Amino acid sequence: MRVGVLTGGGDCPGLNAVIRAVVRKGVKTHGFEFVGYRDGWRGPLEGQTMELGIAQCRGILPRGGTILGSSRTNPFKIENGVERIKENLAKDGVDALVAIGGEDTLGVATKLADLGVNVVGVPKTIDNDLSGTDFTFGFDTAVNIATEAIDRLHTTAESHHRVLVVEVMGRHAGWIALHSGIAGGASMVLIPEQPFDIADVCARVETRFESKYAPIIVVSEGAIPRDGGDMTLVSGELDAFGHVRLGGIGDRIAGEIEQRTGKEARAVVLGHIQRGGTPTAFDRWLATRFGLQAIDAVAEGDFGTMMALKGTRIERLKLIEGTGELKLVSPEEYAEAQVFFG
Ligand code: F6P
């Protein structure tokens, strides 16, 4: 069998570990051949391939990014996109695809599977917002990077008696903010699921200073103010999946805090630092196991499925079950962190 592999959407640490596991087990156990498709769905759409075998996977386990490249190409937004993908797969002699991606890439995989393409999905996103799986790889790395940043920000905030607002990724879900905020001892965590009251944020800033500590506020890029304000945009332009580019909420909050409390406040945007570089051991472990199970699913002809972590077991779900809705922070989980606010 000849198997195509692609990585789509925002990159995340651990993608190369999946590719390596898929190829190693595919070649050694199942005797498969591989084709690497470049830059997400653009690869099969435009017939852009690269050689992919054990040799190309040597040394990539600890490397961030993806050797295949990535893009946010949506074939359903391109004329004859699906037909072109089917034609190119046939031309390349590809019998099955392993698609590694988040809600958008796997959303495309779900629709293609319904249209008869043999596809198996592997979930990835630093945001950890895919339902069906307990964790996605990339998340643990992002949380560790954000936590280290918060640790460092504590000492400088305290030296200058300043408020530091740390903006982390998380378009729809506040998982990175919540986990790094708890791990880093933040004095407040603001997430998209719970619109925030800026007066409450300022009140907690004041109480934090009363206890002689400098406040660190961790905010997801997608957090929204309760008083009807909107999400903070870098650009209103939509990508191929209808997403705007978020950013700037940290600055906005810091400005409000300075104005309302008279305390000096600065914002730090962690941005793509959270997505780059080497994966943690947990992410390498999870990505490798997803890859091993995904290629077994291909060998068994179990198409239209995706891998999911349940406890410590890797299970297979129908793609639609894993991509149908987002996994959000529940009010109960948020309430746990609130004990430390202020
Ligand atoms: O989907 C993951 C994510 O990290 C989001 O949290 C963020 O909004 C987005 O990617 C930004 O990605 P890019 O800069 O590639 O558009």
From TrEMBL:
Describe its function. Catalyzes the phosphorylation of D-fructose 6-phosphate, the first committing step of glycolysis. Uses inorganic phosphate (PPi) as phosphoryl donor instead of ATP like common ATP-dependent phosphofructokinases (ATP-PFKs), which renders the reaction reversible, and can thus function both in glycolysis and gluconeogenesis. Consistently, PPi-PFK can replace the enzymes of both the forward (ATP-PFK) and reverse (fructose-bisphosphatase (FBPase)) reactions.
**Is rRNA processing among this UniProt entry's keywords?**
no
Record's protein name: Pyrophosphate--fructose 6-phosphate 1-phosphotransferase
**Annotated source species:** Nocardioides currus
Domain named Phosphofructokinase: residues = 2-298
State which pathway it belongs to.
Answer: Carbohydrate degradation; glycolysis; D-glyceraldehyde 3-phosphate and glycerone phosphate from D-glucose: step 3/4
Site note Important for catalytic activity, residues: 124
Q: Which NCBIfam families match?
A: PFK_mixed, PRK03202.1
InterPro entries attached to this UniProt entry: ATP_PFK, ATP_PFK_prok-type, Phosphofructokinase_CS, Phosphofructokinase_dom, Phosphofructokinase_III, PKF_sf
